[in-house]
Specification:
heterodimer; A: 361 residues; Butyryl-Coa Dehydrogenase, subunit A, domain 1; Butyryl-CoA Dehydrogenase, subunit A, domain 2; seven-stranded mixed sheet; two-stranded antiparallel sheet; B: 385 residues; alpha+beta; Butyryl-CoA Dehydrogenase, subunit A, domain 3; 3 domains; 12 helices; 13% strand; globular; binds flavin-adenine dinucleotide
Chain lengths: 361, 385
């Protein structure tokens, strides 16, 4: 079933628009300007991104999307990752919209998703620490939610949250307008806008909760993670390229440092890490098409473990081989490193993924 | 953490250090150091002054120049206790670098003029060795000095100069003879940062700080009496300097301090008993023990009269690897809590500096002779390859 199909024309088109967008809007100086905005502002290029079709890419056609498979959006997400974009494309389109398209009833989908897909409203999923659901209790005809999530990407400018809640041991989705939560906007170390979201006895009518959506929730969490992994693979690749260029150019002891064998071996290891990372993203992305959630989860976890190891190794060597320049803020390297740090710290820790992998048959 | 330096006389010495620190260290500064936060100039200075009053700032200096007369073993113990008690590090470029150079190679006047001001920290020194084109290959440096009446005119630029924003003096390597083999035409000069022609540009680092700088030297006049030792002997002095304090290079105190902090984080998050985390913590403790045992073994050999050679490079390589590894373990313990910018409103106090320190400490394997260069030294000078 895993075929490693080459990207379709549609996928290549998306990737091209992403490349052009990054080239036009994300030079380091332009990015620095965007970073001076308040984290709670609507992200600078949001409307344009919606128009380019990035938000609808992975949403099924009958819910108003393009219906691309997860594997087909990997090339685009790689470019957006390496481009260090500051807009929460993955969180909104993969983590939220694509999941909601599967969780909502057919009657609801179009109406609920339209403003999100059009880029008019930003909505993201909120769960507790490490993706665990937020506790809910019943009071009369209402549900009362309490819990906190420390750093939710995209939440700073969101108009509503889809909270993954748990009542009597079963998970459900509850939509909460942003004004009902305590939202503290902040930036992450790589500059992305996020927010701490605290729900302090937030009350909603029980019949508004969407239950019976386990499968969609699991699918959504894994799809969001595949998006993160694709971005990671893009960043790893960009770091490798930047470092390769640097070691060919930087001279010490009368020759390019890339002529020293230890440097060559590090570059070769970095290349291996890049290739493995890309393979594992595609493997996980194709596995997302399976109806077997355990199989999907197993491969996504495998990809997560391999890619976070690759990311650490590449990060270390990329900085190291740039010498002092590597720790400076002046080259793309430092910024890529910080994005990598953020990407590898989200989506569950290594031990948890190893466990899920080992438990799956 | 197991301490290997635990003979009865070691414990007495430890207790003396501890009592002093407990009495003297300002709790706010202490808290900053314990969290790994960046320190302000005053944090360094206040502690330096306390230590100076006690006569402890220069453990490596001979007593006649103001050292406390500690043995190498006592210096290791003091270092360990200071880290354990979260004291700020003492500004090192005067005490550990140019001070010892002047003691060995400086003129009587230079010693009298500069050494007391290093001890009191009235002068803050920075190190102007590296240049944009001369990093690992330091001997290829191009900043040049041209002979003039009564001294030299120096032009060029230096880079990665740590804390130059705090410094009022810089010791530089400059090329005084472009005709000879590159190591042989280098001299060491002392330059007043306020001298005409000296300017500075801060370099922003990826962790958001600017602890390093670029220094521009534009026809700066350096009188003859500020040249260290002999003209064209600078390379020899610089090498002697890099060999100085070799046994401290493993940073055992720093590693133990960090390990303790990572343990605290693990406990605070309920991961203290997690099998994976506790196994990794134990492995780091053993790594540190191995570095310490190796240091002590080399120390014993040195005290028995053997000259230490390039093998001490191994301490730098392993020490920095362990320290960087510990910053990765901190990240793994913190998870997403490491991500908010430490200045923002979402930062969790326990983890506020975790990402910052991970990023900042990438420097450990780059500066002071990168780890690749250290391994080449081991291969070439020790193994004869
Ligand atoms: C935070 C920080 C503070 C610093 N503070 C000071 C200071 O106060 N004063 C000062 O003078 N300098 C300072 N330095 C400079 C430091 O000493 C240099 O960065 C270091 O010597 C490396 O030089 P480079 O950055 O030019 O890297 P390069 O020499 O360009 O090296 C780049 C990479 O190539 C590798 N490499 C180079 N040559 C070889 C070889 N022959 N074989 C194998 N690998 C090789 C290196 O290991 C490194 O990984 C500081 C640096 C940093 C990062």
């Amino acid at each position: 079933m895993i075929r490693f199909e080459l990207p379709t024309e549609e996928a290549l088109l998306l990737k091209d628009t992403a490349e052009r967008f990054v080239a036009d809007h994300y030079a380091l100086e332009q990015r620095a300007k965007a970073l001076s905005a308040a984290p709670g502002d609507v992200p600078r290029h949001w409307a344009e991104m919606a128009e380019l079709g990035w938000l609808v890419a992975c949403v099924p056609e009958d819910a108003g999307g393009l219906g691309l498979t997860p594997a087909q959006i990997v090339p685009m997400m790689e470019v957006l990752g390496a481009g260090l974009i500051l807009e929460p494309v993955g969180a909104v389109s993969l983590g939220c919209a694509a999941m909601l398209a599967r969780a909502l009833s057919p009657d609801d989908v179009a109406e609920r998703l339209a403003p999100v897909l059009a880029g008019e409203a930003i909505e993201v999923v909120v769960a507790g620490r490490d993706g665990a659901p937020i506790a809910a209790r019943r009071e009369g005809g209402n549900l009362v939610l309490s819990g906190a999530s420390p750093a939710v990407i995209g939440a700073a400018a969101a108009t509503a949250f889809w909270v993954v809640a748990e009542l009597d041991g079963s998970r459900m989705l509850v939509r909460i307008p942003a004004e009902d939560a305590a939202v503290t906007p902040c930036r992450l170390v790589d500059g992305q806008a996020a927010a701490q979201v605290v729900l302090d006895d937030v009350t909603v009518p029980a019949d508004e909760a969407i239950s019976g959506c386990h499968a969609a929730l699991d699918f959504g969490a894994d799809l969001a993670l595949v998006g993160v992994l694709a971005e990671t693979s893009g960043v790893i690749d960009a770091l490798h390229k930047a470092t390769l260029d640097y070691v060919k150019m930087r001279e010490q002891f009368g020759r390019p440092i890339g002529r020293f064998q230890v440097v060559q071996h590090k570059m070769a290891d970095m290349f291996i890490a890049c290739e493995e990372a890309r393979s594992m993203v595609l493997l996980a992305a194709e596995a997302m098409e399976s109806k077997d959630a355990a199989f999907r989860g197993k491969l996504v976890s495998a990809a997560r473990v391999k890619i976070s190891d690759a990311a650490r190794a590449v990060l270390r060597d990329a900085v190291q081989l740039h010498g002092g320049m590597g720790v400076s803020d002046e080259l793309a390297v430092g910024h890529l490193v910080k994005r990598l740090l953020v990407l590898t710290q989200t989506g569950g820790n290594r031990a948890a993924h190893l466990k899920r992998f080992a438990k799956a048959a | 953490m197991t301490d290997l330096l635990n003979a009865p006389e070691d414990s007495a010495f430890r207790a003396e250090i501890r009592a002093f620190v407990e009495a003297e260290l300002d709790p706010a500064t202490r808290a900053k150091v314990s969290r790994g936060s960046p320190l302000a100039r005053e944090d360094f200075l206040r502690w330096h002054q306390s230590m100076h009053r006690k006569g402890w700032v220069a453990p490596g200096w001979p007593a006649e120049h103001g050292g406390p007369g500690w043995s190498a073993r006592q210096r290791l113990i003091a270092d360990e206790e200071m880290f354990r008690l979260h004291t700020p590090p003492l500004p090192g470029f005067g005490l550990k670098m140019i001070g010892p150079i002047l003691i060995r190679f400086g003129s009587r006047e230079q010693q009298q003029r500069f050494l007391p001001r290093i001890l009191s920290c009235e002068d803050w020194w920075c190190q102007g060795f590296s240049e944009p084109g001369a990093g690992s290959d330091l001997a290829s440096l191009r900043t040049r000095a041209v002979r003039t009446d009564g001294g030299w005119l120096v032009s060029g630029s230096k880079t990665w100069t740590t804390y130059a924003q705090y410094a009022n003096w810089i010791f530089c390597l400059v090329r005084t003879d472009p005709e000879v083999k590159k190591q042989q035409g280098i001299s060491m000069m002392l330059i007043d940062m306020a001298a005409p022609g000296v300017s500075r540009r801060p370099i922003r680092l990826m962790d958001g700080t600017d602890e390093v700088n670029e220094i521009f030297l534009d026809n700066v006049f350096v009188p003859d009496d500020l040249v260290v030792g002999e003209i064209n002997m600078g390379w020899t002095y610089a090498k002697a300097l890099l060999e100085h304090e070799r046994l401290g290079i493993g940073g055992i105190g720093r590693s133990k301090h960090l390990l303790a902090r990572v343990r605290e984080m693990a406990e605070a998050t309920g991961l203290g008993d997690d099998p994976e985390i506790s196994a990794r913590l134990a492995a780091f403790e053993i790594d540190i023990m191995a570095i310490e045992a190796t240091t002590l073994r080399l120390l014993a050999a040195a005290e028995a009269g053997r000259t230490l050679g390039a093998e001490t490079s191994l301490l730098k390589v392993r020490g920095t690897e362990v320290q960087q590894g510990l910053t990765e373990l901190m990240l793994d313990i913190a998870g997403p809590a490491a991500l908010p910018e430490s200045a923002g409103d979402c930062a969790d106090a326990l983890f506020a500096n975790v990402a910052y320190q991970f990023l900042n400490w990438r420097k450990l394997s780059i500066y002071g002779g990168s780890n690749e260069i250290q391994r080449s030294i081991l291969a070439g000078q020790v193994l004869g390859l």
